[in-house]
Amino acid sequence: MDRHIPFDALHNFRDLGGWTTTDGHRIRPGRLYRADSLGKLRTGTADWTRFLSLGIGTVVDLRYPWEIEARGRVPAHPSFTYHNLSIEHRPYDQAALTQDVAPGPYLAERYLEVAEDGTEEIARALHLITDAATTGIPLVFHCASGKDRTGLLAALILALLDVPRETVLEDFSLTELATPALLADWTTRQGQAPRWPAYGRAPAEVMDLFLTALTTRYGGVEDYVTKALGLDARKTSTTLRTHLLEQPGLPGADLTFRQAGDEDAPALVRLRDSAALWLLARGIDQWKPGEKDETHFRTRIREGEVWLAHHGNHLAGAYELWWDDPAAWGPRPPEAGYIHRLMTTPHTAPPGTGRTLLAHAESRITAHGRPYARLDCLSSNPRLRTYYEAAGYEVAGEQRAKQDGRGSPYAVTLLEKRLSP
């Protein structure tokens, strides 16, 4: 599931539903949203119809009043109430920063300032969110880009819901998928690109450093909510968990597969970038967002096979199937199919989706009369190697200098499985 809800004018409108807590509960979809500026919405448009269809009853705008004066606010409508809670008290100009400013430490310091300056407004925002949770009517909160002020408030909410820290970092970093569009909007509006290369970026390190600083200063999110905001953190957490969490159900339908066409390339790029952010938020340096573009997937669709798996109406995963792989395996006779980019949608794919994808790929290889399924994984990723070995793959060697045409050689472990005819 792509967490970004598609709008024409908005680029970072996301559902917080679907994230899983440490005790296995799940945030109910369709109840709590985060977004970039809703001042970009216009009545009488498809965007406006889509927004109203979400049934939102409360809009919390975290921007300065002068931002609202300059850029507008969400159009008034009887279906929701609007609140302006400007949580940031010390303005700073990210676009004007110089390239030597590292985004992690700099933004984490600004977030800590916001957390300390905006206590009254943040407390009020949490009151509104708990009230909305109790009524069951959806709420959305937003700032300008949906990254900094919105990201801070989202992190507090997720922590109070007992969502794991790495998931909080991942939620923050998903703005990276919207960065190109946000940057294009800013450049069009200003007539030039921002000076700071990190403008619009949301590396997980920023949120990691902020949460560490909050823990050092206060003892953690709950202590911050109690000591700085003056709220009963336990009561707030209990209310949010009671009304926003659900037990994840068992898969309601089997996975269905279809072969990808050129029109699926954007969805495949999005899926891979989402998976890359999931890995990075957990300290697994294997994939980076933006490494594979639509041209890559269209090439793989043309030269091999790419398959999509759906669970109901939602994309659950995908994989590439190649008929040779000289970069990793060298020249070989036509005896194998080579599985690449086995991807599942983080947090929302049914249990066992990865194994089901593997089994489907193996069936395709068998259908082509080839007796081996082969794949590779980074030699520095033992967890993935263990996963494939548990699925029946055996180590067949190592390629210490695999080339993909994009950078330095890297080492991969080669694995293969003998297939039954």
Could you explain the architecture of this structure?
There is one protein chain. With 421 residues, the chain is α/β, with parallel strands linked by helices. It has two domains: 14-246, Protein-Tyrosine Phosphatase, Chain A; 255-418, 3-Layer(aba) Sandwich (Aminopeptidase), CATH 3.40.630.30. The chain is 40% helix and 18% strand. It has helices at 46-53, 65-71, 103-117, 119-135, 149-160, 165-173, 179-190, 204-218, 221-227, 233-244, 265-281, 294-303, 326-329, 353-367, 382-390, and strands spanning 14-15, 26-27, 32-35, 58-61, 81-84, 139-142, 245-246, 255-259, 305-311, 314-322, 336-344, 372-378, 394-402, 410-418. The chain has a seven-stranded mixed β-sheet with strand order 8-9-10-11-12-14-13, with helices on both faces. A five-stranded mixed β-sheet has the order 1-3-6-4-5, covered by helices on one side. A two-stranded antiparallel ribbon has the order 2-7. Strand 9 and strand 10 form a beta hairpin. Helix 3 (103-117) packs across helix 8, helix 5 (149-160) packs antiparallel against helix 6 (165-173) and helix 6 crosses helix 11. The longest helix is centred in the first third of the chain and has 17 residues, at 119-135. The protein is elongated.
